[in-house]
Amino acid sequence: MNFNKAIIIGRVTRDPEIRTTPNGQTVASIGVASNRVWNSNTGERQEKTEFHNIVAWGKLAEICGQYLVKGQLVLFEGRLETKTWEGQDGSKKSRTEIVAENMQMGPKARAQEGGVSAYQTRENTQKNNPQNSENEIQTESQDNQSAKQDNNPNKELEDKEEIKIEDIPF
To answer: What DSSP string runs through 79-139?
Structure first.
């Protein structure tokens, strides 16, 4: 039995580079850096950074190009693939890449989001989709009433910060 799986959690080192192949397939090249921290025999803190080349295809490539930015925390799951070629000077060259099968974005800092909360995103969704907005507004006002009845000052904040599956853009 054979098994080829790579899981990387790290920070994006540059904005994704998006290209389209001659047959119309979208491909994204992403650089990710992951750190390893350990204590040496003398007790000194050691740190080493590894740089990974990630390649995503199709819809995943489009999503990476649209949502990933330099410095963002990201998880990629995929398989290792090594490419070899002959350089202009005649030397043999190789490069190992992770061909992404899944991607999960890490949390964004408030500054990166421009201060937009999940609650504000839900409000924008309601404005853009008026069919569902009446039901959600009624549910929201019921939530606000129950929060006031609970006398829990954090209850209303917790309800506003909740992220719903409908709010995810993909």
So the answer is: EEEEEEEE-TTS-EEEEEEEEEEEEEE-PPPHHHHTT--HHHHHHHHHHH-HHHHHHHHHH
Q: What is the C-alpha to C-alpha distance for residues 37 and 50, in angstroms, rounded to an integer? A: 11
Task: Please compute Rg for the chain using Cα positions.
Answer: 22
Give me the CATH topology for the region 6-110: OB fold (Dihydrolipoamide Acetyltransferase, E2P) (2.40.50)
Considering Cα of 149, then 126, then 165, then 69, what sign does the dihedral take? negative
Q: Specify the pTM.
A: 0.61
pLDDT, tens digit (0-9, with 9 covering 90-100), for 26-38: 999 999 999 999 9
Distance, CA of 93 to CA of 96 (rounded, Å) = 11
Question: For residues 83 and 91, what is the distance between their CA atoms, to the nearest angstrom?
Answer: 14
